[in-house]
């Protein structure tokens, strides 16, 4: 058996603990797969004295990052500490020291991934980041290896567990957003400050990473149009369910003839769509390739062990590459620059819920406005509102472009017969 | 740009045609991914004169296998002709000529995979077979790379599109097996001789390949216990649906402490199980890893382009390895010998449907027999049978071992109060 490969950890929270646990518990399988022992050599922690649930030789702990990233015993640095600018500096230093990198840091990769990958390549080092997107689901390897020969034209991801948990509970139990969010916080499925999750920022980072890899095209975080779920009402879920749809927070990345659209927004999907059955905190990424057609990768989107498993699969890849002597030798070509579609090119169906004046002529006023903007109806539901001279109208449109849709929505608000536009969502997976 | 890599095809049916189409249509992306042109150099066909829908330079066609497997222009042989013994000889000759192999042949790999892989390794050649299991789903790469660091303990696969199509139609439309099979044959979803599909043999081959890879343990085709769907009745589907289950033909591979069970059989899954939403001709493989937990890979299980895409992803891998100079350098250790569980160790729930004499005491006779074999009830449904002094009893048992279950079933048949045991199925994914 060859000499052990040395692993240094930056961070020792839940994912770091999971990595240490897997390296220990699965040592035999690991050796079987890579042909040599794998040993944790150094672990950066904030406070060496802190009580820990994971048993670890305390001589391995250090409060000095340099003892990890500059140690001659460390071949591979696993970054599971989070953070952006300071962490980036540490990884640059580690790469300059010829350490291979495995990171679970989506924030860092969404912002500085291209730069770090270039440096890694220059230094002959691997830099893998499977754990940064969709936890335990091997989606990045699926895109870069499994579907490598295909031309991917569309990805739809449920890539945030917190929001999927909230929408599932709202939808199955008919409860309000605030009520479910509070319960999710008590159960640990949502952070005490849930903004990054519920407003879609976390999902946007993951979609930027997915789109960059899937389309071989540099997609920036700022390219992602983002809308969260904090304004989704139980009524929206109720009516969409009646009309045959399930609401999910969907990260959507599409390309047509080299032009890209990318967004994160609450989206209605037909009940029979594979993503509609992805419940609770689970994640899934639906990938459409020109040749393969529909595929979907499903699994746990977060959690110490699933995320650690993804990081470990990267570790295995790095060690295999070390033993083959091919680290950092990417044979994939450079990324193209991505060109975003304009609103005229973004086609979709929409769900629109209006409260309208309940009198003769209302409907004809509304339908002529829709006709004016060339937006036609696929489904329609009208219901009286109890105790008011008002009616609720829910429309599922046929496909239209986003420019027309936005003009329509602006004008709808101003119609005298419309009390209010209650809500509006994109509809995908139909037609 | 470096010199082109030469590809030789053995076979030019639907998958072979798909390969040629993808190499042509996606040439630019391919070059981007592997850094050199990829060219089809020779194609073995039965009859050069036959009319073909795919346009191909007829100088590339040959009726002599040797012109493919011994051509100095061919670096990689893609085997998409099917067949077992003759095909094996051709591949052995190709490997002896130092050609890398990509094959879509599940029959061959289920029977002779270990031998061929060993020869490939000895010759410094790659031999990849992603397309042999579940068409366009990159499940083999998912197991060998994505989940490489985890210990996989359970796999459940819907790996045969024909049977999934038939069960979906029977279940959704309340039609009989014979009726749906006939329609499936007319639509081309089932072969004119559907035996290998409907009796579970096709699925068994794929499960042997999956289990060998997922458990790093040599699982033989003969190890797979196989039952098909030809005796599934619409009544079985109706009652299982009423009790909250969906019936699927499930390939199940489990290991506990190094002992393995592997089977293909009609199985009931709770409606909310991810595999329950896999409809029509789609395939999916559900993988449980100790660390990652539940994951699922979903996609088209057959079809020219999906299967060709899987073969193409292998081709990309071979070419990347060629450019890195690492073909055939597997760093994975040898397979362990698999030890099968005996019936006492195989634990499961069961669905049992009986027709019984409708008189006082029947139920108590049956329940005391169940108690004798330590099989307890989770759910129970009793219904009168129209116009007969009989009742239908449907039981979902708690978990029991297969030995007890079989003793129970043998004795049930002999009870005077039991007219007949109508059907019985394994139940998975609960408890």
From TrEMBL, chains A, B:
Keywords of the record, alphabetical order, are: Amino-acid biosynthesis, Metal-binding, Methionine biosynthesis, NAD, NADP, Oxidoreductase, Sodium, Threonine biosynthesis
Q: Which reaction does it catalyse?
A: L-homoserine + NADP(+) = L-aspartate 4-semialdehyde + NADPH + H(+)
Binding-site positions, NADPH: 106
Q: What NCBIfam families does its record include?
A: PRK06349.1
Q: Which residues bind NADP(+)?
A: 10-17
Q: Which organism is it from?
A: Alkalihalobacillus trypoxylicola
Q: Which residues form the active site?
A: 206
Cofactor(s) required for function per UniProt: a metal cation
EC category name? oxidoreductase
Q: In which pathway does it act?
A: Amino-acid biosynthesis; L-threonine biosynthesis; L-threonine from L-aspartate: step 3/5; Amino-acid biosynthesis; L-methionine biosynthesis via de novo pathway; L-homoserine from L-aspartate: step 3/3
Q: What is the E.C. number?
A: 1.1.1.3
According to its UniProt entry, the protein's GO biological process terms are:
methionine biosynthetic process; threonine biosynthetic process
Domain ACT, first and last residues per copy: 351-426
Q: What is this protein called?
A: Homoserine dehydrogenase
Give binding positions for L-homoserine: 191
Name the domain of life this protein comes from.
Bacteria
Q: Does the UniProt entry include the keyword Oxidoreductase?
A: yes
The similarity comment for this entry is: Belongs to the homoserine dehydrogenase family.
Keyword Oxidoreductase listed = yes
Extract the GO molecular function terms from the UniProt entry: homoserine dehydrogenase activity; metal ion binding; NADP binding
């Amino acid at each position: 058996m060859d000499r052990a490969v040395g692993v240094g950890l930056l961070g020792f929270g839940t994912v770091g603990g999971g990595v240490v646990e897997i390296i220990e518990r699965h040592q035999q399988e690991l050796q079987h797969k890579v042909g040599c022992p794998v040993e944790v050599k150094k672990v950066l922690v904030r406070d060496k004295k802190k009580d820990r649930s994971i048993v670890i030789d305390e001589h391995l702990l250090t409060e000095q990052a340099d003892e990890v990233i500059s140690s001659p015993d460390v071949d591979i640095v696993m970054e599971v500490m989070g953070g952006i600018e300071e962490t980036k500096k540490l990884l640059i230093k580690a790469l300059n020291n010829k350490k291979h990198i495995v990171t679970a840091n989506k924030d860092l990769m969404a912002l500085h991934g291209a730069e770090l990958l270039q440096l890694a390549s220059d230094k002959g080092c691997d830099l893998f980041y499977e754990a940064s997107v969709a936890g335990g689901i091997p989606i990045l390897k699926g895109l870069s290896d499994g579907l490598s020969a295909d031309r991917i034209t569309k990805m739809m991801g449920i890539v945030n567990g917190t929001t999927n948990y909230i929408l599932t509970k709202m939808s199955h139990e008919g409860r309000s957003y605030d009520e479910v969010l509070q319960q999710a916080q008590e159960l640990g499925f949502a952070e005490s400050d849930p903004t990054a999750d519920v407003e879609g920022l976390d999902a946007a980072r993951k979609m930027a990473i997915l789109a960059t890899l899937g389309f071989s095209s540099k997609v920036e975080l700022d390219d992602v149009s983002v809308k969260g779920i904090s304004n989704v009402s139980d009524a929206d879920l109720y009516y969409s369910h009646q009309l045959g749809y399930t609401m999910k927070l969907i990260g959507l990345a599409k390309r047509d003839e080299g032009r890209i659209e990318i967004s994160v927004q609450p989206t209605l999907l037909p009940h029979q769509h594979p993503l509609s059955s992805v419940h609770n905190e689970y994640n899934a990424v639906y990938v459409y390739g020109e040749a393969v057609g529909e595929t979907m990768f499903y699994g746990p989107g977060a959690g110490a062990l699933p995320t650690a498993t993804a990081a470990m699969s990267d570790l295995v890849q790095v060690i295999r590459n070390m033993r083959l002597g091919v680290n950092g030798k990417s044979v994939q070509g450079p990324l193209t620059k991505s060109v975003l579609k304009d609103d005229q090119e973004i086609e979709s169906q929409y769900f629109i819920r209006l409260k309208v004046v309940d009198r003769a002529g209302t409907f004809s006023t509304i339908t002529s406005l829709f006709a004016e903007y060339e937006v036609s109806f696929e489904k329609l539901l009208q219901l009286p509102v109890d105790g008011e001279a008002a009616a609720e109208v829910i429309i599922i449109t046929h496909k239209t472009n986003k420019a027309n849709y936005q003009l329509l929505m602006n004008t709808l608000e101003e119609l005298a017969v419309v009390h209010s536009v209650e809500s509006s969502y994109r509809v995908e997976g139909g037609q």
